[in-house]
Amino acid sequence: MVYKRFAEVGRVALVNSGPQEGKLCILVDFIDQRRVLVDGPLTGVARQALNLNNLSLTDFKVPLPPRARTGIIRKRLEKSDVLKNWKKTAWAQTLERRLIRRSLSDFDRFKLKNAKQEVSASTFKF
């Protein structure tokens, strides 16, 4: 299998740690071998330098000129429907499920456990 997720200008990435954890951003420019300038005008990520170790590169890429300004990035993101396509991926759906599970209250977890037990019991009845 050939690796296709190269760090390049316009590559969409997911922030793994920090205050913007779980948000998508776009690589705008390279500062050095470890740090990149990112921007996410539609996702709430401010234009800033982030370490590549704190990013997960996705399969999506938006055609951008180097050092593009926020307005150009916003227009190209809206045109390309990257955010809509991201929500359809299994990766995004898994992250959303984790977020929902994390926010459950104790009673909600109890109801979920009981629902799972009912489904399990109904499938294994003889």
Tell me briefly what this model is:
The protein has helices spanning 70-80, 82-88, 90-102, 106-123, and strands at 11-15, 24-30, 35-40, 45-51, 55-61. The chain is α+β, with helices and mostly antiparallel strands and 126 residues long.
Protein model, in words:
There is one protein chain. The protein has 126 residues and is an alpha+beta fold. Helix content is 39%, strand content 25%. It has helices spanning 70-80, 82-88, 90-102, 106-123, and strands at residues 11-15, 24-30, 35-40, 45-51, 55-61. A five-stranded antiparallel sheet has the order 4-3-2-1-5, covered by helices on one side. Strand 3 (35-40) and strand 4 form a beta hairpin. The longest helix is centred in the last third of the chain and has 18 residues, at 106-123. The mean pLDDT is 94.
Q: What order do the strands of the largest sheet run in, or round the barrel if closed?
A: 4-3-2-1-5
- End-to-end separation in angstroms reads 45 Å
- Apparent shape: elongated
Largest sheet: 5 strands, antiparallel
Secondary-structure class:
alpha+beta
Oligomer: single chain
Mean pLDDT: 94
The strand count comes to: 5
Work out the helix count: 4
Tell me the β content: 25-35%
Secondary-structure element order, as H and E? EEEEEHHHH
Percent helix? 25-40%
Rg on CA atoms, Å: 19 Å
Low-confidence stretches: none
